[in-house]
Amino acid sequence: MRAVSGGEVAGILVAVFWAILVSFLAVALVRLAQTLKATTKLVADVTDQAVPLLADASAAVRSAQTQIDRVDAIASDVQEVTSNASALSTTVASTFGGPLVKVAAFGYGVRRALTGRKAEDVPARKPGRTVIVGRTVPAARRKNRGK
User: How does DSSP assign the chain, residue by residue?
Assistant: First the structure.
């Protein structure tokens, strides 16, 4: 047999370590490739699901914008009707309000003159209920309110 020199042993050791290193690198590269394949599949699946969702979201936003435009149109119409009703109310109040008050006062005066009564002769009304700011107040509370 031939004697193995120290350089040959060192070379064999370097070759074995080199083979182990290459084996570890090969395993790491195989696992990296598997990870990249899984990542690619995941991205493809997410893309397949995200595109329809984005289309639905876009359609929903468009529909919401259409509804907002309709509501805006309705709100402007309501504002116009409100201003017209306010103007009409003011016109009616200024046109008929003063004359109606005068006619009512005149009618009251004529009625008083025709009956010939004084304020003291008019019998007192039976106490009932009085409405104050949307509430009905009983007669007993109405008497105490003045005190």
Answer: -PPPPHHHHHHHHHHHHHHHHHHHHHHHHHHHHHHHHHHHHHHHHHHHHHHHHHHHHHHHHHHHHHHHHHHHHHHHHHHHHHHHHHHHHHHHIIIIIHHHHHHHHHHHHHHHHHHT--TTTSPPPPP--EEETTEEE-HHHHHHHT-
pTM, two decimal places: 0.40
Cα atoms in the 13 Å half-sphere on the side-chain side of 127 = 7
The answer to whether residues 129 and 136 touch, using CB atoms and an 8 Å cutoff, is yes
Q: What are phi and psi of 130, to 5 degrees?
A: -120, 140
Per-residue pLDDT of the chain (147 residues; tens, 9 = 90+): 778 788 989 999 999 999 999 999 999 999 999 999 999 999 999 999 998 899 999 999 999 999 999 999 999 999 999 999 998 888 887 787 777 788 888 888 888 888 875 555 555 565 565 555 555 555 555 555 544
What sign has the CA pseudo-torsion 17, 21, 22, 26? positive
